[in-house]
Amino acid sequence: MYTRLLLCTIIFLLSSCNRNEDDTQTNTPFKVAINAMGKDFQIETSNLNISQTLSSVESPNTATVTIEQSDLLYDSVNAIKDIFVLSFDNSKWVIQGRRTLYRCHHDRGSHQFSSALCK
């Protein structure tokens, strides 16, 4: 009986530790934005630039995460920039908005980042 109680206690403690660690690791603006990119993100290797800007260093309540993929192997698109605006609600980061911009190859559209699709 004591063995069973000890085993149940150990399993409970281990599962609680693991859950808290997972919550802490995924509850950052950067991780939320990366997860929102989907399972196909970076299937093909490209240059990658990621930046995160917080409303304040101590107790931030908003964040902007920018993920730029450049030198892509597409016919028309040279780079894609995803900009995420997040807020800290109920102890977790939530995406409030996402904007995707494109930079095109020569003769395929805008050479500056734009919401217009490349030709």
From TrEMBL:
Identification of the protein by name: Auto-transporter adhesin head GIN domain-containing protein
Signal peptide: 1-21
UniProt keyword terms in alphabetical order: Plasmid, Signal
Superkingdom, taxonomy of origin: Bacteria
Presence of keyword Signal: yes
Signal keyword on record: yes
Native species: Rickettsia peacockii (strain Rustic)
